Amino acid sequence: MKELKELMEYRSDVRVVDATLRDGGLVNDFYFTDDFVKDLYEANIKAGVDYMELGYKASKEMFDENKFGKWKFCNEDDIRAVVGDNATDLKLAVMADVGRCDYKKDIVNRSDSAIDLIRVATYVSTIPGAVDMIEDAAKKGYEVSCNIMAISNVQEGDLKVALDILGKTPVDVFYIVDSFGSLYPEQIARIADVYREFAAKYNKKIGIHAHNNQQLAFANTIEAVGDGVDWLDGTYASMGRGAGNYAMELLLGFLRNPKYNIFPVLQFIEKHMGKLREQGVVWGYDLQYLMTGLLNQHPRTAIQFTKDGRTDYSEFYKEVVAMD
Amino acid sequence: MKELKELMEYRSDVRVVDATLRDGGLVNDFYFTDDFVKDLYEANIKAGVDYMELGYKASKEMFDENKFGKWKFCNEDDIRAVVGDNATDLKLAVMADVGRCDYKKDIVNRSDSAIDLIRVATYVSTIPGAVDMIEDAAKKGYEVSCNIMAISNVQEGDLKVALDILGKTPVDVFYIVDSFGSLYPEQIARIADVYREFAAKYNKKIGIHAHNNQQLAFANTIEAVGDGVDWLDGTYASMGRGAGNYAMELLLGFLRNPKYNIFPVLQFIEKHMGKLREQGVVWGYDLQYLMTGLLNQHPRTAIQFTKDGRTDYSEFYKEVVAMD
């Protein structure tokens, strides 16, 4: 359902989601300076970004608060210190992983929170856990999305069952998540077809969260927009786990809705992202991520390769090809 | 005419063209070591690459041989020192620019040359010059392609006239060249439609040469393959002018024809490309190239920004937006 003529027009249903703190936090253990977070918040407002994902609501039973920056936990006080009462058009989101979030305790009623949207992250195998979290979040008054991760490993039959279950919950948005960065635009188009069927049946929206292992995060996202996908996750300068995500600056250059503005994004990157790289924070396309993407594998081996400072790419290729 | 099912099959008409020395030479003035060129030649053979572009046939009247590496001129002796009699399946190509090549003198008969393919590079405005070069090359026995540069600035009506003129020449391949890296996959699909009309009429092949300003070089290339485009220019590790080209390692991972092999490409990159970067050779996606791509401008201002070591991206944005 690509809409050729629409490169000049726009759909007002599109929602741009900045996932820099959350997906980017995975490469620096969420140790962002207050200055960084405040400037990012201001840049998002000026750029017309619709949602800013602040980080995770991670279980404090499972993760030691002293071993991570505060955006892994997103305590209400820490959020308020940045956004005050957030009297802006920018909505705030956190991610909650099935099995790694004490949501009954740690997610309070929306009326007592600065957060607007709970993003439930699940594998197809943990859908019942996701359903419970979705219902909890909706009951507390939040908007809710559900990110179905590692979709490139999911059989179409199972995906349909999952979407049919999720369709009956109060979730607002179904997400396509290419966790391994292994999908090509043609495959995105096919997966979007499946999602559209259930989105139409249950009156839900569709989102996409792409990874850049094959330098296709942006291409897959704009393919998806042409296939009826509205919610688009990106990060500033592609900052994110492994090969990173699509770059916010690419998307804001592409979107035709005049509410979006690329300039504050360029300013933010100029001020902060080069500095992060100089400090040794590493992310973005490299051969090891291409390989795990090609082979449709979780990037954990490639992340380890990066951490170890290895550059023996051909040796690594032999390792991952043999991994089964 | 995207062929969804074909992600599992392949078209034997596809031709992979390695443009590393030619487009990459634009960022290091063609100063490649003999070791680099020899290893690249061997890697291409092992990887199943179909054509290797060695460089330019640049006019020695216009360019001083002492100010550039030898691959700007591609003297027959220099080629022979690497390839001998090239008793392999890898074919050899050079580029000849309209107005910057003494082709009558510098391009000898194919029977006296190691070169198989002359790639004539032209703007739409210099098509008559291209026609003369195409006829000269064909008469001398070469395969001939014609690269129509800066296609994103060409009106469809003019493009049709150009293709109709070129169709009547002995040229074998029409190339789509996104010199500014400004096109989106949907636009590639539309342009490929126009090319296909004339390729069918005159029995020609179609090629694509993409740039990575918006991280779409690979995506645009695989879009084009789905639209009947067969000749695909890439470079190792994306090495090329400005934001570079699509990465050969991405394409060889994508293509399903078992004649192609990604491993020698990984080995070559591991051995040579990190070293080039350490020596200060700079190429690849960065914000300044995104901006000229978005604005559909020649990247020369962005290349200067890079050479000057500037990182004041937002200032640069103001400069290029105002440039008219």
Would you write up a description of this structure?
- 2 copies of one chain form a homodimer.
- By secondary structure, the first copy, chain A, is an alpha/beta fold.
- Chain A folds into 2 domains: 11-278, Aldolase class I (TIM Barrel, Alpha-Beta Barrel), CATH 3.20.20.70; 287-321, no CATH class.
- Helix content of chain A is 42%, strand content 13%.
- The first copy, chain A, is built from 13 helices and 8 strands.
- Chain A has helices at residues 20-28, 34-47, 76-83, 103-106, 127-139, 156-167, 185-202, 217-225, 248-254, 263-278, 287-294, 300-307, 313-321, and strands at 15-18, 51-56, 91-97, 117-122, 143-148, 173-177, 205-209, 231-234.
- In chain A, strands 1-2-3-4-5-6-7-8 form an 8-stranded parallel beta barrel, surrounded by 4 helices.
- In chain A, strand 5 (143-148), helix 6 (156-167) and strand 6 (173-177) form a beta-alpha-beta unit.
- In chain A, helix 11 runs antiparallel to helix 12 and helix 11 packs parallel to helix 13 (313-321).
- The longest helix of chain A has 18 residues, at 185-202.
- The first copy, chain A, is globular.
- The termini of chain A are far apart.
- The A-B interface holds A 2, 4, 7, 184-187, 189-190, 212, 214-220, 222-223, 226, 246-247, 249-250, 253-254, 262-263, 266-267, 269-270, 274, 287, 290-291, 294, 311-314, 317 and B 2, 4, 7, 184-187, 189-190, 212, 214-220, 222-223, 226, 246-247, 249-250, 253-254, 262-263, 266-267, 269-270, 274, 287, 290-291, 294, 311-314, 317.
